[in-house]
Specification:
This is SPIN-DOC-like zinc-finger domain-containing protein. InterPro entries: RNaseH-like_sf, SPIN-DOC_Znf-C2H2. By secondary structure, the protein is an alpha/beta fold. Helices cover 59% and strands 9% of the residues. It is built from 29 helices and seven strands. The strands form two sheets. A five-stranded mixed sheet has the order 5-4-3-6-7, sandwiched between helices. β3 and β4 form a beta hairpin. The longest helix has 45 residues. The two termini are 68 Å apart.
Length: 603
Amino acid sequence: MAKRKAENRSFLDKWEAEYLFTYVKDKPVCLVCGVNVAVSKEYNIRRHYETKHHDKYKDLDMTQMSQKVEEMKISLVSQQNMFKKATSQSETAVKASYIVAAEIAKSARLFNEREFMKKCMMKVCDLVCPEKKQAFSNVSLSRNTVADRTCDLATNLYDQLMEKGKDFVAFSLAVDESCDASDTAQLSVFIRGVDSNLCVTEELLGFKSMHNTTTGNEIFEEVSKCVTEIKLPCDKLVGLTTDGAPAMCGKKSGLVGMVREKMREENCAGELTVYHCIIHQEALCAKALKMEHVMTTVTQVVNFIRAKCLNHRQFKSFLEECGSEYADVPYHTEVRWLSRGKVLNRCFELREEICQFLETKGKDTAELREQKFLCELAFLCDISSHLDALNLQLQGRGRIITDMYAAVRAFKTKLCLWENQMLQGNPCHFPCCQSIKAQISTAVFPCAQFAEKLSVLAAEFSRRFANFDAQKCKFELLSNPFAVDVENAPTNIQMELIELQCNDTLKSKYDAVGAAQFPRFIPDTMPQLRTQAAQMLSMFGSTYLCEQLFSSMKMTKTTHRRRLTDEHLRSILRISSAQSLSPDIDELASKKRCQVSGLDTSD
């Protein structure tokens, strides 16, 4: 050991000219054959030179040897750069294939369309930058390659979500189910998690294909698998939002009941808060108006115009001849939230043109011209517009449940105002009603009847959103903690709440950043308030993300693409729905080797 320490293992510059060696990455490298010597000892280097290259270079003097060394070093650097360039080009081609795969997954395109794209790329390259043709040719976009890339991207996103899940202090789930083009039931599970820094992550947790029945027990099993696979403990689950179907919200055999039972079995300290999707409930509230007879008549008229091609063409020509502002009437689709309001508005605006067209077809328009019907149509048109405006307020990603509840509360207050104004014969916020009222006798316009309907609608909102009203105190702790009555707050946060409300610096910060961002500035010395904020931030107010995903699913798995596998469908939807996360393409490309596409690019 002492002898080894005493030896000089440093590479000496004179060995370059004497033995044609250089030092690369902590290893002596022969400039002639490129062999590495394991140990930097003169004996080893000299023995290699004398046994391999001495006879070839023995006649050169030291000056010639030095020149030869410089030439060989330049050649070595050139070779290294060539290999680095080849590696860089290969990795760039792989990255490009991943980027294209991600973009086309987001646009719900077919896998085999990538080959068409490759041909287009090559033809553009021939015209714009022919010297780069080989680089473009190296980008593999074959069907199988892109399918594999799509799965890799989805797996990377899931791994990132699993890693983020380790830091979650609270999370909630949104669960919904729908059928695809092949009549396979698809269960979507979204997670909204909040970490210790009160940053929110909102992503697709699982998308499960259910080929048999969809009972509460089966849905529970699939949701449990999703949570177990990501290794999240049940005691951090604080909220569950569903579409309100019996299989979802059943207290015993439904998903909600089984999740609560599991939490009791595991002795979870927290209580599960369950919500029926706010947007679904808002749509259900509208049914309390009981004005289906008006909608039925409108739907029949629209179907008469649109169902037959000849009628549809003639109606559009008729509108054009009349110089109408509108060119057509849309179909009514029950499952589309905003469809009813759009159809009613269009039919109201074109009511005279529609009646004239129907008369040319020999149809009786007496009902459509009745004052009572016109008044009801105008009222339904106006109230549907207000409901659609609320619906749009509730839609969107990243919506905080307190903001959604505030929008519903504001709408309930508006209903009370509208009711009082309607009783006074002043429909100032109902433009269609104002238009009809100006055309007919004021005594004929049924203000009292419409005021009663507004009262019924307000009562329905209060009934359906009673569970949200019960959470009002918790919502205020997030939306405006400085206005909360401390005596009404939970006892475990009262002391911290007093400290918060008396802190002028935090009050200034709240005024500056707003309610949504303020929880991040609550100091660590107030752990109970931070925990309360994390739980509220993690809550889903609706299943909007699930509905949005199902819309993407319908576009992806069409009747012409029924053979799309469950794995590929799941991967495409995970990529297209990703919001908080993005695939690490550099990491994925570093693990792959470039494969030149087999597509013929000589055309």
